[in-house]
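Structure tokens please, single chain.
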Amino acid sequence: MITAYVFGQIIKPVIGVTRDLRILWALEETGLPYRLQALNFVRGDLRAPDYVRVSPFACVPAIDDDGFTLFESAAIVLYLAGKSGTLLSADARSRTLATQWAFAAVNTVEPAMIQLFAIDKFSPNPSAEARRPSVIETVQKRLNSLDTELTARPFLMGNEFSAPDILMATVLRIVQHTELLDAVPNVAAYKARCEDRPAWRKVFSAYEERLAA
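Here you go.
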């Protein structure tokens, strides 16, 4: 059985955007059996030697699949899709395109959004506020490009929900505290479409309950 290392306690500003949501969503979509190992961020569980052996950078999420350990949310989502034979095409080119979109989500779209989130939630100072307009400009460029891509198809790979959609949809949550998604209707509709899936609703409900405890 897969052990999924997730947050059992985390600081309030990041609840709802933590990366463990990505692997939990993938686990529910694939139907792979799993159990949770909840970690307390404030208590320092991420720095415990046993966990650092699984996740050397002391980050969440990570998994242990009967001795095979893996960290980095995108890598885990793609692994779970491949292991289950779902959320990815069997065609080599299609799988490579899915990997491309997975990388785009976490390497191209996410970084500027993380910067904006950090400014808005953790850096209320003149220096951060001075940087905010340029960060917003980058986020808007990424969203506009994605909006164009989603003009003619409901999901990143076409008509079917797939592994990179898990990553992209959760990345978009990082800026849902702003009004930036209102200017990109295709992106907003895409995020809503992804989050309407039963697997997401189940995962997020359990997540909220766990972190509220």
